[in-house]
Amino acid sequence: MPEVRIVYRDEKTGELKAEIVDTEDYEFTIATRGSWKMLIADEDVEFKAGEVKPVRIRRTPLPRESIVLRCPVTRHAFGYVASLGRRGEPQPIEEDRELNYVIFKALDNGTIRKGDLIGVVNIFPVMMVRRAKKPKKVREE
């Protein structure tokens, strides 16, 4: 099994951390029934056209054994959500997870305000075709 380097920022301190984990790829079956969740800004952020910045969002829970896909339809007049994330240590799919920020790409000048709807995610339950080996920390870097 390959050893890979996982790099993330500590949720509380913002300090850059890295660890080597032993992990593997695995397959899953995706359900045809899913759900939508709104991504709502949790801070005011000013943008100029073309800027790409992180925006804190209200905590968005994700159920275990589900995948999340960004809805490609633009939901805010100033731009769109380019990526989704959670500050802190990566969370395995076998556990409940959450999103707490997005990367936003501005198409126009303006300000995202706390409480603005800035995007939507599609959440689909998955079933593992075979149980994957849970990633195991080998060492910190």
UniProtKB/TrEMBL annotation:
Q: Which InterPro entries match?
A: DUF22
Q: Which residues form the DUF22 domain?
A: 3-110
The record's section on Pfam families has: DUF22
Its name, as the record gives it, is: DUF22 domain-containing protein
Provide the species name. Answer: Archaeoglobus sulfaticallidus PM70-1
